[in-house]
Design brief:
By secondary structure, this protein is mainly α. The protein contains five helices and three strands. The chain has a three-stranded antiparallel sheet, with no helix packed on it. Helix 3 crosses helix 4. The longest helix is centred in the middle third of the chain and has 28 residues. It is elongated. The N and C termini lie far apart (about 60 Å).
C-alpha cells in the first residue's frame, strides 16, 4: 500500500505475486474510497507482459521447483564455462605472459568504435572515468615497468 503524496493523490494497493497472471494494482480515492483504476494482467500491453513473465522466469518463481532447478542449471553452466575457459587459457598461453596479442604498429583508428565509446562516456560517466583511469594506468605505470611490459604483452 502506498499512501497519497498530496491532497489530490490516491492510495495505491498492489498485490504482487509469484504468478504474473494474478498481479493486481488498485488506485483508490483517498476521500471517498472509490476505485479510480484497477490494473491487472489482461490490461498490460505486450511489452509489460513479456517483461513480467521474463522476470518471473528469471527469478525462478513461475513454475516452482522446476523453474528454480532450470535456473540453477543455467547458473552452473555459466560458472563451468568461466572456470573451464580460465583453465584452457592458462594451459595454452605462452610461458611467462598473459598471451594477449601485441598492438600492431600501424593500427588504424576505428571511427565506429570511437563513436560508440564517446556515446557510452556521455550516457554513462563512470564508463568514461574507468576508460580514462585504464588509459592513464597503461601509459603512466604499466608501460614504464619492464617486467609488466613483458608479462602483459
Amino acid at each position: 500500500m502506498t499512501l497519497p503524496q498530496d491532497a489530490e493523490g490516491a492510495y495505491t494497493l498492489s498485490a504482487p505475486t509469484d504468478d504474473p497472471l494474478r498481479q493486481a494494482t488498485l488506485h483508490v480515492d483517498q476521500y471517498i474510497g472509490q476505485v479510480l483504476a484497477d490494473v491487472r494482467w489482461q490490461d498490460y500491453s505486450l511489452v509489460p507482459k513479456a517483461t513480467e513473465m521474463g522476470i518471473a522466469l528469471h527469478e525462478g518463481k513461475y513454475f516452482g521447483l522446476a523453474n528454480q532447478l532450470l535456473m540453477l542449471f543455467a547458473a552452473l553452466v555459466v560458472i563451468l564455462l568461466a572456470a573451464s575457459g580460465t583453465v584452457v587459457w592458462w594451459r595454452r598461453r605462452p610461458a611467462k605472459t598473459l598471451g594477449a596479442p601485441a598492438m600492431p604498429a600501424n593500427f588504424p583508428l576505428w571511427k565506429g568504435a570511437v563513436a560508440i565509446i564517446f556515446v557510452m562516456e556521455l550516457a554513462f560517466p563512470f564508463v568514461g572515468l574507468s576508460l580514462v583511469i585504464v588509459l592513464l594506468l597503461d601509459s603512466l605505470v604499466l608501460s614504464r615497468i619492464p617486467i609488466l611490459k613483458i608479462v602483459l604483452g
